[in-house]
Structures are given as structure tokens and as C-alpha cells.
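In full, the data:

***
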Amino acid sequence: TNCNTPVVYKDTVIFALEDGGIVAVRPTRQGKQWAAPEVWRNADNALYMNTPVVHGNLLFGLSARNKGQLFALDAGTGKTVWQGPGRAGENASILNLAGTLLVLLDDATLLVQPATPAGYAPAARYTVANSPTWAHPLVVGDRLLIKDETTLRSLSLK
């Protein structure tokens, strides 16, 4: 299984291959047929059970490499811009709030990471639950809803 959702960036579709890295294709119509030639491939990172997000020309995600490693790619070329330290976790749910990434790791750690090419540098780190957090968080107004194994928490985004 490779449980992530493809991401659209301009005229390309970006997705992950099981143990095959991240790939971008450009769907085009050639007469009556459709084709999707590969635009780029990044083997440095591999997605598993998480969907990346795009901000500007950057794609942010959690690679399965190095036991979980946050990364940023140039969404136009596929080149790795930065990689964080390994051992971040098995899964991450990532939200892009106008250039601020909220990264909820499966160990109930919430990272607040600027969506910039400057590198891995969380502005804040919070423990937001007492058990694993596999469900994707949800923003409702100025609240962040986080579900763990037994509770649903509502946290202020202010």
C-alpha cells in the first residue's frame, strides 16, 4: 500500500511510488489519446501513509527514509531543497496555513514549521495528545481539532 493523495502543481501531478521515490508527470492529450510523460523523479525521498502539501514552488512532506524525515522539494524540478533529521515518526499529517506548516506526527507531536526553503527549523513543538495521533487534524475557524485513540481535542490557533 502507498496511502497518499496525488498533488497537483501547475500542469503536473505529483505522486509517490512504493519504494520508488516521488514522481511528477504532465498529463497531455496527443490526438485522441492521453499520455503522462515523466517530468522529474526524486529518489532521495519516499512517501508512505502521508500526503505532501505545496506552498509556492515547494513541496513539503515526511519521507519514509531514515525512519521519518521531513523534507522540502522544488515542485518544478524535483530537486531536494532540504531534509530534516531522521527518526521523526512513521506518519505525519501536514496542513499548510498560509505559509506555516502544522505537522502532526503519529507520536502526538505537533511541529510548527515555516514553509520556506531556509531549512528544517520548527518555530515550535507541542505534545498535543496522550496516545498516538493517526487521524488528520482539522482546522475549524481559529481552532485545531486533533483526534488521538480516545479523545478529540480542540486547540486554539491564536
